């Protein structure tokens, strides 16, 4: 599906036509440059590779430099593939936020904030013991039993336990597009999206 790479600017709120305060996220969507056109004959599938945010040649390795030179564009920091564009595209074409329309819906993919090593109460929403009697004075947030005894003598994979939380690829679907501001390459979507401020996201129509 067609889309763009973007950067999460932050959250704010706007007033709707009915006077309600609507929380929304501001995203800098593009402009993105076409860096490669993939075809069924050569690559086995059709897609358009887009680049976002220029970077210096100093921080570009030789393989990347050759790739961008063949496309006739400056080195780009972030790359992603999209498909299903209506218009005919060629290498070096620029695609901006105008492909989105106010009142439409988009899917946003981002990387969630890292929380480090967390226990089961925060990571999985366990309720905890809830009392400090019957010897439970220091185990209020413990997971409890995680397996059987003699059989099967192991813990099954996927058991909810403490561990690393966050830094996951998260997709939020059907976000309502409140406003598109082409002159600043901004799109405002209703609700929140994954990731911290200035993190890179993918916006799909």
β-sheet strand percentage: 35-45%
Overall geometric form: extended
Termini distance? 7 Å
Q: What string, H for helix and E for strand, traces the elements in order?
A: EEEHEHEEEEHEEEE
Mean pLDDT: 89
Rg estimate, integer Å? 23 Å
Beta strands, count: 12
State the major sheet.
Answer: 6 strands, antiparallel, barrel
Count of separate DSSP helical elements: 3
Instruction: Output the structural class.
Output: mainly beta
Classify the helix fraction into a percent range.
under 10%
Strand order of the largest sheet: 1-2-11-10-7-12
| Unreliable segments of 5+ consecutive residues | none
Describe the structure.
- It is extended, with a radius of gyration of 23 Å.
- The protein is built from three helices and twelve strands, in the order βββαβαββββαββββ.
- Helices cover 9% and strands 40% of the residues.
- The protein is mostly beta strands and 205 residues long.
- The chain has helices spanning 40-43, 62-71, 120-124; strands spanning 3-15, 21-29, 32-38, 47-54, 76-82, 94-95, 105-111, 116-118, 163-165, 169-181, 186-190, 200-204.
- The mean pLDDT is 89.
């Amino acid at each position: 599906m067609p889309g763009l790479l973007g950067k999460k600017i932050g959250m704010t709120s706007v007033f709707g036509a009915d006077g309600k305060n609507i929380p929304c996220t501001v995203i800098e969507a593009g402009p993105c440059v076409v860096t490669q056109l993939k075809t069924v004959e050569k690559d086995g599938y059709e897609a358009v590779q887009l680049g976002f945010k220029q970077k210096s040649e100093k921080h570009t390795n030789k393989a990347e430099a050759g790739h961008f030179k063949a496309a006739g564009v400056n080195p780009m920091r972030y790359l992603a593939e999209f498909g299903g564009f209506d218009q005919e595209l060629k290498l070096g074409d620029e695609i901006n936020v105008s492909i989105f329309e106010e009142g439409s819906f988009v899917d946003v993919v981002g990387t969630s904030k890292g929380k480090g090593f967390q226990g089961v109460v925060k990571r999985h929403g366990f309720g905890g013991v809830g009392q400090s009697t019957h010897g439970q004075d220091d185990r209020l947030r413990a997971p409890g039993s995680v397996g059987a005894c003699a059989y099967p003598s192991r813990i099954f994979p996927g058991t909810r336990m403490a561990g690393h939380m966050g830094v996951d690829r998260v997709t939020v679907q059907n976000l309502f597009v409140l406003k598109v501001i082409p002159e600043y390459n901004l799109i405002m979507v209703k609700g929140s999206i994954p990731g911290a401020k200035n993190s890179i996201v993918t916006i799909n129509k």
